Amino acid sequence: MSYKEVELKDYEYIMSITENDKERVFFKNEINEDYSHDELGGIKKMPDIVIQAITTEEVSKVMKYAYENNIPVTPRGSGTGLVGAAVPLKGGIVIDLSRMNKILELDEENLTLTLESGVLLMDIGKYVEEFDLFYPPDPGEKSATIGGNISTNAGGMRAVKYGVTRDYVRGLEVVLPNGEVVELGGKVVKNSSGYSLKDLMIGSEGTLGIVTKATMKLIPLPKKALSLLIPFETLEKAIDTVPKIVKSKSTPTAIEFMQREAIIAAEEFLGKSFPDKSSDAYLLLTFDGNSTEEIEKAYENVANICLESGALDVFISDTEERQESIWSARGCFLEAIKALTSEMDEVDVVVPRNKIGEFVTFTHELEKKANIRIKSFGHAGDGNLHIYILRDKLSKEIWHTKLSEVMQIMYDKAKELKGQVSGEHGIGFAKKGYLKQSLPDQCISIMQGIKLAFDPKNILNPGKVCE
C-alpha cells in the first residue's frame, strides 16, 4: 500500500481544523520524540503531523481529510501500551486523544458513566466512588486512558470476580476511517440487534475506528475489602492451590502470584518494606463485599483451603495501611523489574487456569536452558501470566537472537496448553507474527476481511494486529 507523502499543505489544512491553534498541532521537526513510540522498547517511527484533538468533530474532519488524501493515521492515548500499537509505522498523522478528557454524565438510574476517551483510569475510580459507585476493571497502568483500555480490552487484577473492560462497555461513539461518526450500543443492558459492532471495536487496537466517547457500566461500591498474603514453600504449591480456591465458591476479587525476587525488587524500588519476604512464593488475594460477615466467611474458607494445601501461614491485611503496603509493591513490579535490567520484553500469554503451574515451571526450566533471566508474576485467578525476558549485559545481536528464540518457545508452549497469545495487552505490531501462528488461517482471513470492511484504504493504524 502506498500512501501520500505528507506536505506542508496537509499540515496547514489540519491547522485550519483547529482554527490555527499552534499549541495543539505539530509538524515534522516540532514533534516530540515521545510520539514515535509507546512503552514497548525497540520499535520507533516519527509521525509527520501530530494533532491533540479536543472534539469528536476535529477527529472526524482529520479522518475525512486523511481518507480522501490517502494519509495513514494512528490514534493514541497516554502511550502506555506494551505492543507498539500506538507507533505510527507508516508516518502520517497521529491523533492524540488525551486532551479529550471530560466526564460527560453520571446516570445514577441506569448506573452508567459517559465520558470522553482521554479520561484516565485513575480519575474514573476517584470520581465514581464519591457517588458510592464502582468501576471494577483494574489494569495495572492507572495513567492509561479509558479509550486505550477499550482498544486493548484491558483486564487487570480484579478480572477474577468482575471481568474485564469488555464487560463494562455499554455504548461507544466511534469515528470511522472515512470520517463518519457512529453510535454503537447505548445505555441498554441487553441488545440482540444484529452483529455486535460495539464488541468488534473493543480490543481492535485502533485499527477499525477511533473511540471518542464511551458509556461504561458501573456497580454499587462494595463497602468493605481486605487482602490475604499467603506464603508457600514453592511456587508450584502456591499455583496448584488456585483451582481449589476458584472451585470453592468463595470468589476472591483478585488472585495474584508473586515470588520473593519480585518482592525484594519492589521493596528497593519503593523504599518500603513488605510485610513478609521469608518465603519463595506467595498468593495475594483480595475479597470485597458489603458486610464484614460476608467477607470473613469467604476468606476463612479460602485460608483453610490454602493451609490444607501446604501454605506456611496466612497474613490478613484488614487495614488500609497494610493493604496499601502489599498492593503498592504488587503495583510496581513491572517498574521494579525494569529498573533491574538494561532492556526487557514481555510475554502476556493466557492459559487455562489449571495450566498456570505447568507454564510457570516451564519458564523456570527455560531460564536455565537458555541462560537468560526470566521473571514472572501475574493473575493466577484468570490464567494471564506476565513473563519478562531481561537483556542485562547481552550484546544487541545476542539479545535479539535469544529473545526471539525464547519468545517462540513460550508461545509454542501456550498453544500446546490451549492458551492464547495475549490476555490483556493486545497484539499491536510486536505480537502479530505470533498471532498468525496461534490461529487457523481461516480466522486470520476473517479478521483481515473485517479490517477491509471498516477500512478499505487501510489508512487507520496500518501494520497492526492481523496485517
Q: Span from first to last CA? A: 12 Å
The name CATH uses for the topology of the largest domain is: Uridine Diphospho-n-acetylenolpyruvylglucosamine Reductase, domain 3
Mean pLDDT across the residues is 93
Helices and strands: which structural class?
Answer: alpha+beta
**Fraction in helix:** 25-40%
Count of domain modules: 4
What is the global morphology? globular
Give the helix tally.
15
Strand content: 15-25%
Uncertain stretches: none
Report Rg: 23 Å
Describe the protein.
With 467 residues, the protein is an alpha+beta fold. It has four domains: 8-99, 2-Layer Sandwich (Uridine Diphospho-n-acetylenolpyruvylglucosamine Reductase, domain 2); 103-220, 2-Layer Sandwich (Uridine Diphospho-n-acetylenolpyruvylglucosamine Reductase, domain 3), CATH 3.30.465; 224-334, Alpha-Beta Plaits, CATH 3.30.70.2190; 341-425, Alpha-Beta Plaits (2-Layer Sandwich). Helix content is 36%, strand content 20%. It is built from 15 helices and 18 strands. It has helices spanning 8-17, 56-69, 121-129, 146-152, 159-162, 197-201, 235-247, 260-270, 292-308, 320-331, 333-339, 356-370, 396-416, 432-438, 441-454, and strands spanning 25-27, 49-52, 73-76, 93-96, 103-107, 112-116, 133-134, 169-175, 181-185, 210-217, 219-220, 224-232, 254-259, 281-289, 315-317, 344-347, 374-379, 384-390. The strands form five sheets. Strands 5-6-10-8-9 form a five-stranded antiparallel β-sheet. Strands 1-2-4-3 form a four-stranded mixed β-sheet, covered by helices on one side. Strand 17 and strand 18 form a beta hairpin. The longest helix is centred in the C-terminal third of the chain and has 21 residues, at 396-416. It is globular. The termini are close together.
